Amino acid sequence: MEKINFLIVGKPNSGKSTFYNTLNNKYLSPTGPESGLTKDIFKSEVKILNTNFVFFDTPGLRRKNKINDKNETKLTYEVINLIDKIDVVFLLVDSSENLTKQDLKIAEIVIKRKKILFVVFNKIDLIDDIHKFKKEQKLYFLDNYSPANTINLKFISALSIESIEQILKTVIRTFKIKSLKISTPKLNNFVRDILKNQKFPKINKIEVKPKYMVQTDDDYPRFKVFLNSSKKVPQTYRRFYENILRKKFSLIGVPIKIDFINSKNPYLKKN
Ligand SMILES: Nc1nc2c(ncn2[C@@H]2O[C@H](COP(=O)(O)OP(=O)(O)OP(=O)(O)O)[C@@H](O)[C@H]2O)c(=O)[nH]1
Ligand SMILES: [Mg+2]
C-alpha cells in the first residue's frame, strides 16, 4: 500500500488546523480566530482510498524578524526540516489576504527540495467574485512560475469541504506521476518524434537538437539530454524542452529537472 506523507504549512491563521481536522474527520487540533494557536506539530495516520496518509498540522510560520521567542524559532526550524521527509506539501493561503512574501518564501523552499507543492487558497467563501479571483491567481502563477506545471493550485473552504476524496485523489495521482519511470526507448522515441516535427531554438545561429536522452535514478523525474551543441543552453531553451516533455508524458504538478549535456562533455565521449 502506498504511503504519502502530507504536510500542511502556511502563515498563522490561514486555516491549517481547520483543514487538518477536516482531513481527519475529527477535531484533533484546536482551531480559533486567534493567530498562533497551534504551538506544536500534530501528526495522524489515516487510511483513505487504499492509501496510508500521514497528515501533519504545523504552527503558523512567521517571518524571522517577527519572531522573538526561542520556542517559536525552534518549531520553525522543525517544520522547515520536516519538509525533507515529506511527499506532499499543502501551503495554505488566506484568500482574503493578498499572497504575501512569506507565502512565496515557503513555496520556494518546497520547490527547491523537489517536493510536490499545492498552493491552496483557503477561505474562498470570503471572496466575492470567486471566478475573477481564481483567474487572477492562476495568471499570477503562470507568469511567475514558468512553467507553472510545477505548482498545483487549489481553492477551498476548509470549513466546508465538499469532497475530501476528490482532493486526495488528485494528491495520489500527482504522487504517482512523481514516481513515474520512463523507459529509455520511450524517451528516445520521443526524441525522434520531436526531431521530425519540431523546430528547435537556435544558439549562435545553430539549431540545438537533442541526440539522446535518459531518465536518471532520482526520486523525482530527472533527465539527461545529450545535445549536438557544445554551448550552454539558455533558460529559454530549457523552458522550451521542459514544456514539450511535460506535455508528452503528462508530467503535471510535479517537479522535474533536465540536465543538458553538451557534446564536448567527456562523459559523452566515453559512451
Ligand atoms: N470563513 C472561513 N474561515 C475559516 C476557514 N478555514 C478556517 N477558518 C477560520 O480561520 C480561523 C483560523 O483557523 P485555524 O484553522 O485555527 O488556522 P491555523 O492556520 O491553524 O492558525 P495557527 O495555528 O494560528 O497558525 C478560525 O477562526 C477558523 O474558523 C474557511 O475556509 N473559511
Ligand atoms: Mg493551527
The CATH superfamily of the largest domain is known as P-loop containing nucleotide triphosphate hydrolases
Give the CATH level 1 class of the largest domain: Alpha Beta
Number of helices: 8
| Broad structural category | alpha/beta
Cα shape: elongated
- Residues in β-strands, percent: 15-25%
Mean pLDDT: 92
The share of residues in helices is 25-40%
Largest sheet: 6 strands, mixed
Tell me which oligomeric state these chains represent.
Answer: single chain
Supply database-style keywords.
binds magnesium ion; 2 domains; three-stranded mixed beta sheet; binds guanosine-5'-triphosphate; GMP Synthetase, Chain A, domain 3; 8 helices; alpha/beta; 11 strands; 271 residues; Rossmann fold
Task: Describe, in plain words, how this protein is organized in 3D.
With 271 residues, this protein is an alpha/beta fold. It folds into two domains: 2-178, Rossmann fold (3-Layer(aba) Sandwich), CATH 3.40.50; 184-270, GMP Synthetase, Chain A, domain 3 (2-Layer Sandwich). 36% of the residues lie in helices and 23% in strands. It is built from eight helices and eleven strands. It has a six-stranded mixed β-sheet with strand order 2-3-1-4-5-6, sandwiched between helices. A three-stranded mixed β-sheet has the order 9-10-11. α3 links the parallel β4 (88-94) and β5. The longest helix has 15 residues, at 130-144. The protein is elongated. The model has no long low-confidence stretch (mean pLDDT 92). The structure holds guanosine-5'-triphosphate and magnesium ion. Residues 16-17, 29, 37-38 line the site of magnesium ion (MG). The site of guanosine-5'-triphosphate has 23 residues, from α1.
